[in-house]
Amino acid sequence: MAASIDYEWEQGDDLTISLVYKTGPAGATAPVNLTAYKFRMDIVAPDGKMVSVLNDESIPDTDPFVAGATADTTYEVTMDAVGNIVISLSRAMTLPGGVLFDYISANPSNNVFAYDMFLRDGANKQTKILEGSITINKSVTMWV
Fold first, then answer.
1. Annotated domain spans of the chain
2. Percentage of the chain surpassing pLDDT 90?
3. pLDDT for residue 108
4. C-alpha pair distances (Å), 133 with each of 112, 117, 136
5. Opening angle at CA 71, ends 19 and 47, nearest 5
6. How large is the average pLDDT for residues 52-79?
7. Burial 1-35 (b: 16+ CB within 10 A, else e)
8. 83-92 in b/e burial notation, b at 16+ Cβ within 10 A?
């Protein structure tokens, strides 16, 4: 069973999620060398619609709701040899024209999105490492 963490994201903020992936039982201290791993995180709206796909540079994808279904050339996730995973979520997603902004504008009472994160090792074994929710706290300032 994957761990669960809920995040709050202030509309207009850049959000960075930093994790360290370790091996062994709960409380383990040995970080995993992630250089041969791949990462994917999907964010889903309350009605089940896919809102965004975040990945490391080794996974090509097409983000939903992008005009012309343009291939994703922005790699939102970095990983390293000492277990560090850094996920960078741009404020542009929550501001006018962004996928989260557009969804919240059309559905004002739905500002809580589900996510989960998967790692795939060099042997193609896939593991869900984290799941939870991301609540977007609305802002009146829309500084793009």
1. 3-137
2. 55
3. 86
4. 6, 11, 10
5. 65
6. 63
7. eeeeeeeebebbeebebebebeeeeeeeeeebebe
8. bebebebebe
71 backbone dihedrals φ, ψ, rounded to 5°: -60, 145
Amino acid (one-letter) located at 84:
N
46, with CB counted inside 10 A (0-12, 13-18, 19+), is middle
Confidence of residue 53 (pLDDT cuts 50, 70, 90): confident
User: pLDDT tens digit string along 37-46?
Assistant: 999 999 999 9
**What span, in angstroms and rounded, lies between the C-alpha atoms of 45 and 101?**
12
DSSP code per residue over 96-120: TTSHHHHHHHHSTT--EEEEEEEEE
Give the pTM: 0.83
Name the amino acid, one letter, at 70.
T
Q: Are strands 30-31 and 22-23 parallel, antiparallel or unpaired?
A: antiparallel
Q: How far apart are CA 39 and CA 34, in angstroms?
A: 9
Query: Any idea which fold 3-137 has?
Result: Immunoglobulin-like (2.60.40)
Average pLDDT estimate for 87-107: 90
Q: 137 has which bridge partners?
A: 10
Handedness of CA 58, 122, 40, 63 (dihedral sign): positive
